Amino acid sequence: MLKTILLVLQISIPVLLMVCILVQQKGTALGSSFGGEGGGFYMKKRGLEKKVFWASIVLAALFIAISLLNLLFIK
């Protein structure tokens, strides 16, 4: 039972993590690295952008924890 729950979580959490990462907006992508616009200032994350950022961090930590738990219960 616990093994099944861990397996389902280990499949669903990375999918949610990928969605969070893909939803995050980058204004100029790699353009600022090559001298494009918007490379000289720092902009704070606000609102939904901040929540998606923190959700991706939490999901990554959960994925690591679930993976380690899954290693302990392999039998």
Structural class: mainly alpha
The helix content is 55-70%
Number of strand elements: 0
The main β sheet shows up as: none
As a whole number of angstroms, the C-alpha radius of gyration is 17 Å
Q: What is the global morphology?
A: elongated
Straight-line distance between termini? 13 Å
Give the topology string: H per helix, E per strand. Answer: HH
Compute the number of structural domains. 1
What proportion of the residues form beta strands (DSSP E)?
Answer: under 5%
Task: Determine the mean pLDDT.
Answer: 82
- Which spans of ≥5 residues are poorly predicted at pLDDT below 50? none
Number of helices: 2
Which helices and strands appear, and what pairs or packs with what?
Layout: H1 2-23, H2 48-72
Characterise the protein shown here.
This protein has helices at residues 2-23, 48-72. It has one domain. Helix 1 packs antiparallel against helix 2 (48-72). The chain has two helices and no strands. It has 75 residues and is mainly alpha-helical. The protein starts with a helix and ends with a helix. Helices cover 63% and strands 0% of the residues. The mean pLDDT is 82. It is elongated and about 50 Å long.
Question: What's the gist of this structure?
Answer:
This protein is 63% helix and 0% strand. It is an all-alpha fold. Helix 1 packs antiparallel against helix 2.
